[in-house]
Amino acid sequence: MSIRTRFAPSPTGYLHIGGVRTALFNWLLTRHLGGQFILRIDDTDSERNRPEALQPILDGFRWLGIQWDEGPEVGGPVGPYFQSQRLESYREQAMNLLKQGLAYPDYLSKEELDAERKRAEKAKRAYIHRGPLRDLPPGEGYERYLQQPTAIRFRVPDDQTVIIPDAICGHCEQKSDLISDPVILRIDGSPIYNFASVIDDIAMKITHVVRAREHLTNTFTQMLMFSALGASIPVMAHVPVVNEPKSKKKLSKRDMKKFVTSEISDKLQAIGYTPEQIEARDDLNPATVAFYRELGYLPAGLINYLGRLGWSLDDKSELIPLDQMIAHFSLERVNSSSASFDPDKLYWVNGEYMRQVPTAEKVKMGIPYLHRAGWLPETPSDSQVALLTRIIEACGDRIKLYSDVLQFCPPFFMAELVYDPKAVEKRLLKIGARDHLQAFLKILTDTNDWVAANLDKVLHDYCTAQNIKPGEMVHPLRAATTGREIGFGLFDTLEILGKSVTLQRIQQTLNKFNL
RNA sequence: GGCCCUGUCGUCUAGAGGUCUAGGACACAGCCCUUUCAAGGCUGCGACACGGGUUCGAAUCCCGUCAGGGUCACCA
Question: How many other CB atoms are found less than 10 A from the CB of residue A389?
């Protein structure tokens, strides 16, 4: 079976985490069953539409490897894929319904509608609009419309039960008497989303509509429209909403700025963004894909995490490679309740994927961060790359995100050592630190086999002779040579630093702190 | 408020009447390893929203209550 799914974002300037999860499910379904995943741009709302706001969305998908088979920049047989370029078809279909009496012109003013709405609210019942002209004989509505164009409403049939056999939610039903007659064409002739979406789904031969749960209520109306247009109804699947971390509230597209906490802002500043830049960019927050890309997350990590949010393979799989996800994805195993986005778990998943990344790739992806922080030129020399490679090898699994290079590399690129006050306090100003550093400095001066294994041996020999624990030497030495108390293995550190820098830094530390 | 949907550890989830004194993962706590950090190993903490049915038996089916969410635009 060949299926067709679609994702229909409006050009907002960023790819939202919740949206991309929905898109991922669509994409996985087509890759699993075989078929096409279509990207269609919902830009019918001219007020909100910004043409330049599409690129970040396409970039985001490309980065994640979610390739669309038809849509912007790739074209396809049922284009155009921008709703703003399909206006004629919506109009045509609306006229069609109008002629058949399945839609009708509505001349009520905004004030009249508001009054009606208020009345309904006061009576504590839902506002269900029924225009005065809804029962005009077929043809007459069309005539009236031609004489005096106005908004067109879809005529919801009376006394029907609309059933959505939803692939995720199961059986959902609604009485048609409780469904308002929706506007399908505005007074200016432009279509409303609900209608355009149906027209396009039919025109684009969409077989599976997989979209967010917040559209479920709309779907009752759309079911009626599919029928009125004589089209068969696609498989409907409404994926549950993604909630804010540790919350039951939807991870909203509105007000994303609130996710930029001081902690998040610190993270962004650590990778080189100024507070002004953070403030200016509305896509730099944890609700967007761009944010994770900036911090050096892996596409595969994000995909795995998002795929497991609301969907599961079995009772224990957490790390599911993409080919496995594709091989086993099904709507039946999508949960029907909403799920909270968990940054901690995403971080863990990413770390697991990062272990598979070859050193050379970490070097390549780490350079831009080091460049922005001023530690390396944009194109480092061969020797700088060689040095970075040794550092990253020594880091092992400590790098969970590409931006983590900033936590481990700087001491090796500094001309003048910067000391963390805590390291000085805890590791250098301790009784005995000075004597041991001085004594060991002499030993190191005489050490010529400058490799980690030998340095390890030399230090342990010293400790045995002095009858002290290795920790008493390791900690002051790390602080004296890197200015920090945290880092990877000390002997790797000393080896990479090299003999002359090591000796010089120890001496300098002794002088500086008057030890 | 009307309508629609949902309710298993803090979070993501497994669970399709007996194999559930409810399994896994993240997080958290403790211990081990150790050279700090990370990793690893072990242990612990921790949930079927509540109340009624149906049944020999219910996390699983039914009803009600409560709670949460979504939606009620000439937005998408």
Answer: 15
